[in-house]
User: Fold this.
Amino acid sequence: MLNSSIYCPGESSLHRANPLTKSTGLFTVVVTSFLLPPPALWVVSAIILLIGLACGVGGSVIWRYVLLSLPFTLAVFVFHGAILPRSDMQPVLGWLHYSLTGLEHASLVGGRISLILASSLLFVSTTAPATLLRALDAARWPPGLSFLLASPLLLLDQFTGRARAISDAQQTRGLSVDGSPWRRLQALRMLLVPLLTSALADAQERSHVLTARGFRALPYRTVIDPPADTRFQRFLRWSLAVFMAMETAFMVLR
Amino acid sequence: MLEVRDLGFAYQGQPLLFDGVSTTVPDGHILAVVGRNGAGKSTLFKLLNGLLKPEDGEVLVGGKSISGRKISEIAAHIGTVFQSPEQQLFAGRVEEEVAFGPRQFGLPANQISERVSDALNRTSLLDQIARHPLDLSAAERRFLAIASVLAMRLPVLLLDEAQRGLDRVWTERLESILEAERSAGKSIVMICHDMDFVERNADTVLALGGRTPRQIPVPAFFSDTEVLAEVSVERPTPYRLREFMT
Assistant:
């Protein structure tokens, strides 16, 4: 079962790295995924999962990676490899056909999603949302924009807690969440609707609190304890930004 | 009657929170669970209503063990008003919120309607029947959670800090509901940090956080300075006044 928080505390070099460096690295991986051939996509995904293991977050990252990517990857291979009509469809058994080019395309799409998912999971598993927010503030990002970027991670715990509270309340009032898939689906619907309405109600309250605290009174916020940053990390970020620009230019011009 | 026999529990990777806790709440009896923050009061409730499974011991309602049963099955015996119930309202209308529990029991529509009206009447919310629960005041939301449990008409009620933050009028309403439920023969367990409320309403106290959690009659509990210091609670006003006068 997924824990309430994706972030796993630790002392690895990736945990200690500045969140801006890690997010730049993440964006670089995302852009690079559009240039790599299928085998390389899967190999790099595996390397990222191994980095997760070395950083002490491997169990959590791999478990979520399998849970999220497996259904999607299977669906992509079935759809592109066996369902979508292509000129090179070959019979396998009875009505079942497959396409080699379809499977190659599925490998490309699946590998790309796999790589983006693995690197995103590694990023959120080693980056505390509050530290990301501090790093963005220290880099003098507009408070509204930095909160917009970090708030989904900050609110994850709260929504998980709220979902659990609603589920507990429903079960202790007799709702059975076991049984047939239809019954489970009904239980899920009864959980999602109040979660959504309470989230909308919370949004207004949260907005009032932020306004009352003068959240956007100044163009940027002062940070008392910004996350550690080094000259090497700044150099790395700029290098990765230039590399991403070159990759983008290559993709556009080729 | 609610019985807890030799309950043992520990959160994963943590030392034992409960070891051999036993208590009995007869019909028409109110037990107050008190103790410092983190003593395990809310955890005890989750063990009683099945949200957590005890490592040892068992919970009995009317002499029958409910340990190991599904939460939804235990819900046919024990009703829970959680701490911050306003966080746990989920229906689109007050009426639907209260009807949710009886509907899970498969009752016919006319009985559900009768129970909803009765529960809302008892909690002074009948005129709010068509409103959205999130449009109610904090006290009204708290009472809506209470009404939702009253409508289920269960032999055991668990109330987690139900009196917290209520003004005098709402507190008196809560006390009259508690008295009516006690008179109806319900076994009531309430977690409470307000010792004046405990002194006025409870029959016995289960003090958690001390050396040996045990059930003590209210007058004996508030007269035992050692236990009071051990579980970090203060004496209610009448006791302090009496002490001051003597």
Remarks:
- Chain B is about 40% helix and 20% strand.
